[in-house]
From TrEMBL, chain A:
Phylogenetic placement of the source organism: Bacteria, Pseudomonadati, Bacteroidota, Sphingobacteriia, Sphingobacteriales
InterPro entries, A to Z: ACP-like_sf
Protein known as: Acyl carrier protein
UniProtKB/TrEMBL annotation, chain B:
Superkingdom, taxonomy of origin: Bacteria
SUPFAM superfamilies associated with the record: alpha/beta-Hydrolases
UniProt cross-references to InterPro entries, sorted A to Z: AB_hydrolase, AB_hydrolase_1, AB_hydrolase_fold
Gene3D superfamilies: alpha/beta hydrolase
Domain AB hydrolase-1: from-to ranges: 23-149
Organism: Pedobacter rhizosphaerae
Name of the featured protein: Pimeloyl-ACP methyl ester carboxylesterase
């Protein structure tokens, strides 16, 4: 069972590094090594994450930030095109907004 | 990651709005996983209900297992999940193969179900519906992916292709899933469905090759209503909002 960590306010670089860590945990280091992950990387096209991997990634965000952010709620408001085009930068901005 | 030990295997579950008074359990289809509900349908139902999603054995992030894909074993697993979560009576919904599991649950443990929603359950006696299991090959997967791409607009990359290929190979050639499904071909004809007492909602796509199965269920289940909406077998992916809204209205009605 994941534990909920109360996060202190993070800047965008720290959030980016945390997201990279979560992605590595979900898809495995051997695949991440071959990728150039940037804030522009999209989940489905660039990172090739499927929906169950995005569930796993969402769980990690929830476990880390707790009630501070409603990541699944935010995703649920997107239509299919928005989900397909979702990139790391958008998540970083969303988390920053929730922290402010 | 929430993992429960059910019938000696690890099962990945997700729960939303645990504080709600009533529970809805949603069962996904074959070769799929709980994410078919997680991002869009479950959050809408969770505005009113405690929602429980789980990955079937060897699917998503649940443990792999070689045997037990028949509807009795699948419903034993679901009952054990309800016991583990201390759920006495729930609303139950299932999509595709998950719809068959939901129907079987209603015939075996009617007292544990409040209302029943069946989305795009195929008739197991229909050879076309079972054909997917007989025809698997790498070419089949590539063809499937091309069609899948048409409906979801996502091009599957190399890693995903390999991952899916491994899952299909495992399920088709190593587990008993193929034979277990063939053994279920009399499920619609066996008579049990005519005794389903629950208020039942049958949701199908207008252009689905499973729509006839929905019509047949509508005849067999006395207290059932059939609704066909725009789309084909993939309606939860094509129209998640509409599917969720219809389910919410159905489960909410007193």
């Amino acid at each position: 069972m994941d534990t909920i960590t109360t996060a202190t306010k993070m800047n965008s670089e720290e959030i980016f590094n945390l997201m990279k860590q979560f992605i590595t945990e979900v898809i495995g280091e051997e695949f991440v090594e071959e990728m150039d992950i940037t804030p522009e990387s999209s989940f489905t096209k660039d990172l090739e994450m499927d929906s169950i991997e995005i569930v796993s990634f969402s769980e990690k965000i929830k476990a880390h930030f707790g009630d501070q952010i409603d990541f699944t709620g935010w995703l649920s408001e997107m239509d299919l095109d928005q989900l397909i085009n979702l990139n790391l930068g958008m998540i970083i901005s969303y988390i920053e907004t929730c922290q402010s | 990651m929430p993992i429960l030990k059910i019938n000696d295997r690890e099962v990945h579950i997700q729960e939303l709005n645990k504080a709600a008074a009533e529970t809805v359990i949603l069962v996904h289809g074959m070769f799929s996983n709980l994410s078919v509900y997680y991002f869009s349908i479950a959050p809408i139902l969770a505005t009113q209900f405690h929602v429980v999603l789980y990955d079937l054995k060897s699917h998503g992030m649940s443990e792999k297992t070689l045997h037990g894909y028949d509807l009795n074993s699948m419903t034993d697993d679901l009952l054990a999940l309800m016991e583990a979560l201390n759920l006495k009576k729930v609303h139950l919904g299932g999509y595709s193969f998950g719809g068959l599991i939901a129907l079987k649950m209603a015939t075996r443990f009617p007292e544990r179900i409040k209302k029943l929603a069946v989305i795009e359950a195929p008739d197991p006696s229909d050879e076309k519906a079972r054909g997917i299991i007989d025809e698997y090959s790498r070419e089949f997967l590539e063809h499937y992916v091309e069609n899948f791409t048409d409906t979801t607009k996502v091009k599957m990359g190399k890693r995903q292709m390999e991952k899916n290929h491994r899952m299909y190979e495992y399920l088709f050639y190593q587990t008993s899933i193929k034979q277990d499904m063939i053994n279920e071909q009399d499920f619609f004809g066996a008579g049990g469905l005519t005794r389903v007492p629950h208020e039942t909602f049958l949701l199908y796509g207008w252009f689905s090759n499973c729509l006839d199965a929905g019509k047949l269920l509508n005849k067999k289940i006395k207290n059932s209503r059939l609704l066909a909406i725009e789309g084909d077998h993939n309606i939860p992916i094509q129209h998640p909002q509409q599917v969720a809204d219809e389910l919410l209205i159905f489960f909410k009605q007193p």
